[in-house]
Request: fold
Amino acid sequence: MQRMGMVIGIAPGRIDEYKALHAAVWPQVQERLRQAYVRNYSIFLRQPENLLFGYWEYHGSDFSADMAAIADDAQTRRWWTFCAPCQLPLDSRAEGEHWAMMEHVFHMA
Reply:
């Protein structure tokens, strides 16, 4: 299992919209994440910096393939059309990233 953190900005005027979307995440989107071995997924908001921090645990063995399967899912791509306008990707993210992945530096069990 891998613990993974990621960060992205959020447009200040779209925070309520983003919260409303995530108060009722589509079941198909959640199921696609489960099929890709994503568990314990949370998103946190930090204001006034307007940052979203995402955390999940990946239980699979081929992260690239599982993420590609998520990206290939029609319902997930439709979901992203609602979420993406709310998000402000960081300039420092790696090529190909939307959310910027973070280095895991500490865990206490």
User: Anything to note?
Assistant: The mean pLDDT is 98. The chain has four helices and five strands.
